[in-house]
Each structure stands twice: as C-alpha cells, then as structure tokens.
Design goal:
Elements: E1 2-6, E2 16-22, E3 29-30, E4 35-40, E5 45-49, E6 54-59, E7 66-68, E8 72-77
Antiparallel strand pairs: 1-8, 2-4, 2-7, 3-6, 4-5, 6-8
Length: 78
C-alpha cells in the first residue's frame, strides 16, 4: 500500500510552494515524522515530515519544481 506525500498547506493566501530538495532518495527507508523534503514559499522555507514509515517509493515532483498546495509530490510504500 502506498501513502501520498502532499504539498502541505503552509498558510493563508499561499497557493504554491517550491520543492527545494529531497533529503531521501527512492528506495531509502523513512520513519514516520522524519523530515524527508524541504520546500520554500515566497514567505518562508519549511521541512516536510513523512506521514508514515516505510520506504520512499516515488518522487513525483523534484527540486526546483513549483507545486500547488495539496498536490501529491511523492509516495511512501509501507
């Protein structure tokens, strides 16, 4: 089963954020709550935590891509 990693809602009025860097690569193990990707908005940079433990199965949006809030940016395989 896969679990989606979505671009988080980072604040009122923000509709997009940029993926800065993935801290894990496809195939790497991840723990729930572990920081796996860094993002940036026009107001701040943030770290996104894994919503569940498992293995990073897919990176859909890579570094330097602007992504709408709520869009799936990667997946974790349990």
């Amino acid at each position: 089963m896969s679990i989606d990693i979505t671009m988080p809602d980072v604040g009122e009025g923000v509709t997009e954020a940029t993926v800065v860097a993935w801290l894990k690569q496809v195939g790497d193990p991840v723990a729930a709550g572990e920081v796996i990707v860094e993002i940036m908005t026009d107001k701040a940079s943030m770290e996104v935590e894994a919503p569940a433990g498992g293995v990073l199965g897919e990176i859909i949006h890579g570094a330097d891509e602007e992504v709408r809030i709520g869009t799936v940016i990667g997946r974790i395989e349990e």
